[in-house]
Design goal:
single chain, 150 residues
Length: 150
């Protein structure tokens, strides 16, 4: 699919700093009650890898469901296969609510770069931005028309 449109944006393929994406993940989702280990949808993230291979950004971030961690060894092998040794990458499971997102979900975050930057260092920096979980009730109490009675 990407190959059909590659000529449309060839001029943009130089000096891309960051690619962020969350490829389809139904096969890995914990909400998918009919999960099977070899669900054909599990390979859809390879389209994202194909895109990274063509674009060659300095950095990439892939966000996905927690269930991807169950096959992380295979996923890391795929990243090496598609991107080669030029990239360093690793993943963490992060709680969305720790970063102000109103969701009680753990997210699979894969970060990589070809600049030689430490992935551990990047995740340590991200951890500095943790905050109290977002609670809608608390946010609504602060609104003038919903706050404490006068």
């Amino acid at each position: 699919m990407l190959n059909e449109h590659i000529d449309d944006f060839k001029e943009l393929l130089t000096d891309i700093t960051l690619v962020c994406g969350g490829p389809p993940c139904q096969g890995f989702s914990m909400a998918n009650r009919q999960r099977i280990i070899d669900d054909p949808r599990n390979g859809l993230y390879k389209e994202y890898l194909t895109f990274l291979k063509k674009i060659r950004p300095q950095f990439f971030i892939m966000e996905n469901v927690r269930g991807m961690a169950n096959k992380v060894d295979e996923i890391k092998e795929n990243f090496k296969e598609y991107l080669g040794e030029e990239y360093v990458f690793d993943y963490r499971l992060l709680y969305a609510q720790d970063f102000g997102v109103p969701q009680n979900r753990e997210r699979f975050i894969m970060i990589g770069n070809r600049m030689g930057m430490s992935i551990d260092g990047i995740f340590e920096e991200i951890e500095k931005y943790k905050r109290a979980p977002f609670v809608l009730r608390d946010a609504l109490i602060g609104l003038p028309h919903l706050g404490a009675k006068e």
